[in-house]
């Protein structure tokens, strides 16, 4: 197998990397904060930003046991994304963030955001990500076989690279570039910025590291800092309309 196996593993890695990380440049004009969050951490992170921005607009707030609910009869406002509108719609009743994420309307909005970011070239779409993962797995298996046949260092190196491609974030090089440039212009905050729009962007770029100094009380009550805000949610108790949907399903991602 020797050199042929090494060449096969390398070829698989190259193709998997191209599928996962290209293009180098994407379309970033008009990208809102929820889109930036989606580039960084997927649609789960985007939903967190949408919830924070709705709270800053005084449209939603936390109630009993950290659940969220609309506090105004007015709509979510103009110039908001479909994810904002979907979150505002489902929060007509008390729900945790996890339950809101499992609601069909929010799931559809999250999928639409993923498709938009893939179309902009900022994240790897599902089909490309799946194909890249299969190629990386094949390359890893080939690398293990090469190592077992005596080329230990080469085989292990290729296996590690394969796992890095397989487990790396789904954002493309264009997405990495966007986050790097925005973080340079908007460093991690130490105090509350003047405008809510700036708060949304900082949370989109820095996640929990921005939630803690900017909206600490709301983030803690709503369970956005990592803890479960409610002991028993609608989705987990089996008593609500979203039974059968796993909270946050559809895509992994951090806050």
Short description, anyone?
With 255 residues, the chain is mainly alpha-helical.
Structure commentary:
The structure is a single chain. The chain is mainly α. 61% of the residues lie in helices and 2% in strands. The chain is built from 12 helices and 2 strands, in the order H-H-E-E-H-H-H-H-H-H-H-H-H-H. It has helices at residues 2-21, 33-56, 82-90, 97-102, 104-119, 126-148, 152-167, 173-185, 196-206, 208-214, 216-221, 234-237; strands at residues 60-62, 68-70. It has a two-stranded antiparallel ribbon. Strand 1 and strand 2 form a beta hairpin. The longest helix is centred in the N-terminal third of the chain and has 24 residues, at 33-56.
- Unreliable stretches (pLDDT < 50, length at least 5) are 229-250
Radius of gyration: 21 Å
Helix and strand content put the structural class at mainly alpha
Order of helices and strands: HHEEHHHHHHHHHH
The helical percent reads 55-70%
Strand content range: under 5%
Q: How are the strands of the largest sheet arranged?
A: 1-2
- For the termini, the CA-CA separation is 44 Å
**Describe the biggest sheet?**
2 strands, antiparallel
Instruction: Give the total of beta strands.
Output: 2
> Counting H and I runs of at least 4 residues, what is the number of helices?
12
What is the overall pLDDT average?
85
Shape summary? elongated
């Amino acid at each position: 197998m020797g050199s042929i196996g090494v060449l096969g593993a390398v070829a698989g890695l190259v193709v998997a990397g191209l599928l996962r990380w290209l293009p180098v440049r994407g379309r970033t004009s008009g990208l809102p904060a929820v889109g930036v969050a989606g580039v960084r951490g997927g649609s789960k992170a985007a939903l967190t930003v949408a919830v924070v921005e709705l709270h800053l607009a005084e449209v939603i707030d936390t109630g009993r046991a950290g659940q969220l609910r609309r506090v105004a009869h007015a709509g979510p406002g103009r110039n908001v994304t479909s994810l904002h509108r979907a979150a505002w719609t489902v929060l007509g009743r008390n729900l945790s963030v996890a339950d809101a994420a499992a609601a069909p309307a929010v799931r559809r909005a999250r999928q639409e955001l993923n498709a938009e970011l893939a179309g902009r070239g900022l994240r790897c779409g599902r089909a490309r990500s799946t194909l890249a993962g299969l190629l990386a797995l094949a390359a890893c298996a080939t690398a293990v076989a090469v190592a077992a046949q005596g080329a230990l260092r080469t085989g292990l190196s290729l296996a590690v690279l394969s796992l890095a491609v397989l487990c790396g974030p789904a954002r493309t090089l264009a997405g990495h570039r966007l986050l790097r440039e925005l973080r340079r212009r908007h460093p991690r905050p130490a105090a509350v910025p003047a405008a809510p729009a700036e708060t949304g962007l900082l949370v989109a770029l820095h996640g929990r590291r921005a939630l803690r100094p900017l909206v600490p009380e709301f983030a803690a009550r709503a369970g956005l800092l990592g803890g479960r805000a409610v002991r028993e949610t609608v989705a987990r108790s089996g008593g609500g309309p979203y039974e059968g949907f796993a909270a946050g399903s559809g895509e992994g991602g951090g806050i």
